[in-house]
Write a structure and sequence with these properties.
648 residues; mainly beta; four-stranded antiparallel beta sheet; 33 strands; 12% helix
């Protein structure tokens, strides 16, 4: 099935096809693109520049239209904390709906008070809650404060005594059936900021303002200029974007939403036609994994098999720019489990990946230190399969987690493993011993117990056939996300947790493939971002691209272009390619996030993108947050594939 969106002489093909036999699945329909464009416009906001949020920016999270069960704003612990919104004019108020955070500490709002004001100076109390804990997002039962049409311009919510104040969302309604939420996107403020405060953006209230549309056109024209310099004929798309720009310049304030949406769709269609014409897309297929994030949200725990959630597999999206793309699964026949971190061989014929089988009762097991009681296939192991689906083989065994395998230029395979264990001398002899016995793991310094063992994993190497497994790192703490640099060295992140704060020092390191000459590349004394994960070399450049990730969360955050020649620490070597996404946890918690950046150049990259916020430790990531996108340094983001049921 093929449908077309005609835009001022531009025929943009929006395609769909059947995939995986009898299971018909739209690869990318026009309705899916339209929904994605509108969602991006609503949630991506504007550039943050990485600065700390203001009171108003954090407070806007309480009336930005995002209800997800997490806090929308967060004051510090202080006497009598409060949050308020300015409705802009005296307004009759029928009711106020208050959505509490549902991911913990909901009881703090059980004694919440509400005040109204005409001038923002003199306040009158109109409600005092009775101490009963309420939620909203998770149970569909927000706290409903009935006011019967009382008139006020300002609404304030707060607590008496010393406490934090944090709510998910506050909605204010005029009298009348179907009346809109008049607090949405309005100016808000609060009594203080906390370490969990974050930037929120007014474009969330009205995503189709003339300024927002003009910014979209500007990004598209920047893309057109860059592609023109690369020899692409951009005349049709550029003409369309210039026509939209002219229409936006004369847009009346009272323009109907449908007319503004039409300008958005014209802009995004023209920009997409440019993006898919990029000569750097000189390949036909995309290799990727579908997976549900694990049930414990932490940079370390995300790599343990006992936290897995079932679903997904390894896939190839064939002909992703054509009218008839096909989705092909490489892992049919596997028991339900988690598939992760594929890597393509240098000749394009074989794929490495990690897999663990899901056992429904394993996450709740109180004693995970008893390895003999845990099935061996519940641990992650490294597998290899041909790109045509043939020749499947398992390369690692034992009751250890093995993952993040990468092909080395010399034919060997580097990977991460917990099998370094408690050996004082680790190398070939100790690693080979793990093939026949479940030795105890080594554990992190700062936490964990039998229910949540936090087992250290470090760099290992094996032959192409899975033999001669050996540790190449004697490091006493974690290492993450290896890749191969342009000079053949192994890039990886390392937790340099030695005689200092445990939180923010997951910097970037490099070593030779035999483990000699480890050297700090960037961030060993840089506290923000917390984690320099998923670093990859940029083709034809000395620069690297990485994900600025959080400590108490799964991998995800802002995409950064790094120039190590400009320094080994601080902000000078970094360029934020996604400035609308703050560095998670170090600067707050972003509304959206990226992961798995795969650079095509300094300006273009493939990535996974989530339209919903990261969920920190103690919460559960949604199963379907992420899709596959083509992104650029101008701020354009074009959907390539999204499964509505599971992350890619």
């Amino acid at each position: 099935m093929v449908s077309y969106l005609f835009v001022a002489g531009l025929a943009l093909t929006i395609w769909a096809s059947a995939a995986m036999g009898a299971s018909a699945q739209l690869i990318c329909s026009y309705e899916q693109l339209r929904e994605d464009w509108l969602t991006q416009q609503r949630v991506r906001g504007v550039a943050s520049g990485g600065l700390a949020p203001t009171l108003e920016e954090d407070a806007l999270g309480g009336c930005d239209g995002v209800k997800d069960g997490r806090w929308g704003f967060h004051t510090d612990a202080e006497p009598n904390p409060w949050w308020q919104v300015d409705l802009g004019e005296p307004t009759p108020i029928a009711r106020i709906d208050v959505y509490n955070r549902a991911d913990g500490a909901a009881e703090r709002a059980a004694r919440i008070l509400c005040w109204l004001s005409d001038d923002g100076q003199t306040w009158r109390e109109v409600y005092r809650h009775n101490g009963q804990v309420f939620y909203g997002y998770t149970d569909g039962k927000p706290l409903r404060i009935a006011l019967g049409g009382e008139v006020a311009r300002y609404v304030r919510l707060g607590l008496e005594g010393t406490s934090y104040l944090h709510l998910d969302e506050v909605e204010v309604y005029r009298p009348g059936d179907g009346a809109p939420n008049v607090a949405l996107g309005k100016v808000a403020t609060q009594s203080s900021l906390s370490q969990w405060s974050a930037k929120h953006y007014r474009t969330l209230g009205d995503p189709l303002t003339p300024d927002a549309l003009a910014d979209l056109v500007r990004r598209g024209l920047l893309l057109a200029d860059d592609l023109a310099a690369r020899g692409v004929d951009v005349s049709a798309a550029r003409g369309e974007l210039q026509a939209v720009a002219e229409a936006v310049r004369g847009l009346p304030d009272d323009t109907a939403y449908a007319d503004r949406e039409a300008l958005l769709l014209r802009t995004r269609a023209a920009t997409r036609s440019l993006a898919l014409a990029n000569p750097l897309l000189d390949f036909d297929d995309l290799l990727f994994a579908k997976r549900v994030p694990g049930s414990f949200s932490h940079m370390s725990d995300q790599n343990y098999g006992w936290w897995s959630r079932p679903g997904g597999g390894l896939f190839v999206l064939e002909g992703f720019r054509t009218d008839t793309p096909q989705l092909r699964c490489l892992t049919e026949g596997f028991a339900p489990g988690t598939f992760a971190n594929p890597d393509l061989s240098y000749d394009g014929t074989r794929v490495l990946f990690a897999y663990c089988r899901h056992y429904a009762d394993l996450a709740a097991k109180p004693d995970k230190l008893d390895k003999a009681s845990i099935p061996e296939d519940a641990f992650y192991h490294v597998y290899e399969v041909g790109i045509d689906g043939s020749g499947l083989r398992q390369l690692t065994t034992g009751r250890y987690d093995d993952f993040d395998a990468r092909y080395l230029p010399n034919g060997e395979i580097v990977f991460l493993s917990t099998r370094r264990g408690q050996f004082l001398q680790c190398g070939l002899e100790s690693a080979m011993a793990t093939l026949t016995a479940p030795f105890p793991d080594s554990f992190v310094r700062c936490g964990g117990d039998a229910y949540r063992p936090v087992s250290v994993y470090t760099l290992h190497v094996m032959d192409a056939d899975g033999q001669r497994t050996r540790a190449i790192s004697p490091f006493e703490n974690f290492e993450w996300t290896p890749s191969v640099a342009a000079d053949g060295r192994v890039l990886y992140a390392r937790w340099d947790y030695v005689d200092r704060s445990n939180m923010p020092y997951m910097g970037l390191w490099a070593t030779t493939p035999d483990g000699t000459e480890p050297v700090a590349v960037y961030g060993n004394f840089t506290p923000s971002p917390h984690c320099v994960f998923e670093a990859r070399p940029v083709p034809g450049s000395r620069k690297l691209m990485f994900t600025a990730s959080a400590h108490h969360c799964v991998t995800g955050g802002s995409v950064v272009l790094l120039d190590p020649a400009r320094g080994v620490d601080g902000t000078e070597p970094m360029v934020r390619l996604t400035p609308e996404v703050c560095f998670p946890e170090a600067e707050g918690w972003p509304n959206t996030y990226f992961a798995n950046p795969y650079p095509l150049s300094e300006e273009y990259y493939l990535a996974a993108w989530s339209h919903v916020p990261l969920v920190g430790q103690g919460g559960l990531q949604p199963p379907n947050a992420m899709g596959l996108y083509l992104a650029d340094a101008f701020g354009n983001l074009d959907l390539l594939y999204r499964d509505p049921g599971i992350s890619s």
